[in-house]
Specification:
The complex is a heterodimer of chains A (about 220) and B (about 210). By secondary structure, chain A is mostly helical. Chain A has helices at about 25-35, 45-50, 55-80, 90-110, 115-120, 130-140, 145-175, 200-215; strands at about 175-180, 180. Helix content of chain B is about 45%, strand content about 20%. Chain B has 4 helices and 7 strands. Chain B has a domain at about 70-210. In chain B, strand 4 and strand 5 form a beta hairpin. Chain B has a 5-stranded antiparallel β-sheet, sandwiched between helices. A two-stranded parallel ribbon of chain B has the order 6-7. The chains are: A mainly alpha (about 220), B alpha+beta (about 210).
């Protein structure tokens, strides 16, 4: 996956003749969002995915945070990829990732105080989210900056979409609401609190992954 | 340039550290005044809520401060800041005292609001707590906090203290505890009672001084 290995720059589409991202933009986006989705396929970053999905608004902000952090850190790490000594590679990654996480956290606290209170420690915990460092190690260190940033955005988006889907089900069934608006009327609908609590997250995610695996034809069915 | 020499590694680490630190400092400095204003507005909102001052919950920080200015009078009583809800005719409608103490996982903070008689509870609210969600964390829920409304901070014999009971609330100074959260309930009880003791002692001192 070196920079010289680009085969079809013309097929890239929007980004200038494919020179910036080696003509892999389409594949990068498809991989991050669908074919290699960080949550539903790689099952990474589950901790936060389970914790913040009891409300759609929380899930969206968390998704946005991850897109921002993964994109920025992948971009920077890719810029520095040839200048970073191998020995302290990981420490450098964590330092850069945590810087962007804290910057986002500070902005959230400054302008969306209520949201930052609701998300509690989970924004800060993005530092330890496997997706961010995973993309840094697996992609940003071998690819050019723009491609890496795109990969970060795509993976963040993949995470955000799955979170949003889980949150829609949990908030709707668990509270009868969506983004705070009443959807299922209290008159005939009794909210199922289980969906708001932790087990609801496990059930939803499990069912979602099973459904997605059933939909995908390229997943090999392993038999014991 | 060789990137794996010791000298280069050291220089790289120092430069990266300084750049990251500079970015963090900039973000922190930039956000500090906003965060401070948010924290202050948050506290004002809690004071207004426990004192039952009518205000629009969606109002901006400036409107909130205005409602606070107009209705609430802060007082220092023996190191305790007491907030009083004073009506336009000068009558005190409610007073709130902050309380704080250790919880199971982290600090707990909140307000205890009393009616004009000084012993009937108007509202108890916890605005900062990190108790176990679903168990001790229930102290943040409405059903638990609502139990305190109309209770008294003294028992039938006028002895100060609130009790959180495991076997259901019976007396006028008792509330029902949370199943599975004995530790949190004990800590809440201790915290509330410390505040009540201080408040009553301070009140006694005040009465003596004014005679």
């Amino acid at each position: 996956m070196t920079a010289t290995a680009s085969k079809s720059p013309a097929a890239c589409g929007p980004c200038a003749a494919g020179l910036l991202c080696d003509g892999k933009a389409g594949k990068i986006v498809k991989d991050g969002v669908w074919a290699n989705n960080p949550i539903s396929i790689q099952v990474l970053g589950i901790c936060s995915a389970l914790a913040v999905t009891n409300k759609l608004a929380n899930a969206l902000v968390m998704g946005g945070a991850l897109i921002f952090v993964t994109a920025c850190s992948s971009l920077f790490l890719s810029f520095l990829r040839n200048a970073t000594p191998r020995k302290i590679r990981m420490i450098a990654e964590v330092a850069i990732i945590s810087t962007f996480v804290i910057v986002f956290d500070q902005l959230l606290r400054a302008f969306y105080w209520d949201m930052s209170k609701q998300l509690g420690p989970y924004v800060g915990l993005i530092i330890t989210n496997c997706i961010v460092m995973g993309r840094a190690e697996a992609f940003a260190l071998q690819n050019r900056p723009i491609a890496s940033a795109l990969d970060g955005i795509a993976n963040g988006l993949g995470y955000a979409i799955v979170l949003a889907v889980i949150a829609v089900f949990r908030e709707m069934i668990g509270a009868g609401k969506l983004l705070g608006f009443s959807i299922l009327d209290k008159v005939w609908y009794e909210p199922n609190q289980l969906m708001i609590l932790a087990p609801g997250a496990f059930f939803t995610l499990g069912i979602l992954i099973a459904l997605l695996n059933a939909l995908r034809k390229d997943v090999p069915e392993t038999k014991p | 340039m060789k990137v794996d020499t010791y000298t280069y590694t050291m220089i790289y680490a120092v430069v990266l550290g300084v750049v990251c630190a500079a970015m963090l400092t900039a973000a922190g400095q930039f956000a500090a005044p906003y965060k401070e204003a948010n924290a202050k507005a948050d506290e004002m909102r809690h004071v207004l809520t426990v004192l039952r001052v009518p205000f629009d919950p969606k109002s901006t920080a400036a409107k909130l401060a205005q409602a606070f200015e107009q209705n609430v009078r802060g007082r220092d009583r023996g190191g305790m800041s007491v907030y009083e809800y004073v009506a336009s005719d000068g009558k005190m409608l409610a007073q709130a005292v902050p309380f704080a103490g250790p919880g199971v996982w982290g600090p707990m903070r909140g307000f205890l609001a009393l009616g004009p008689d000084g012993v009937t509870i108007v509202e108890v609210s916890f605005y900062e707590q990190e108790e176990t969600p679903g168990l001790g964390g229930e102290i943040g829920s409405k059903w638990f906090q609502d139990q305190f409304q109309g209770r008294r901070i003294v028992d039938a014999q006028n002895r100060p203290g609130i009790r959180i009971r495991r076997d259901g609330a019976k007396g006028s100074n008792e509330v029902d505890g949370i199943a599975g959260a004995t530790m949190t309930c004990d800590k809440v009880e201790i915290m509330l009672n410390e505040t009540i003791q201080r408040l009553l002692k301070e009140r006694k001192n005040n009465d003596r001084n004014s005679q």
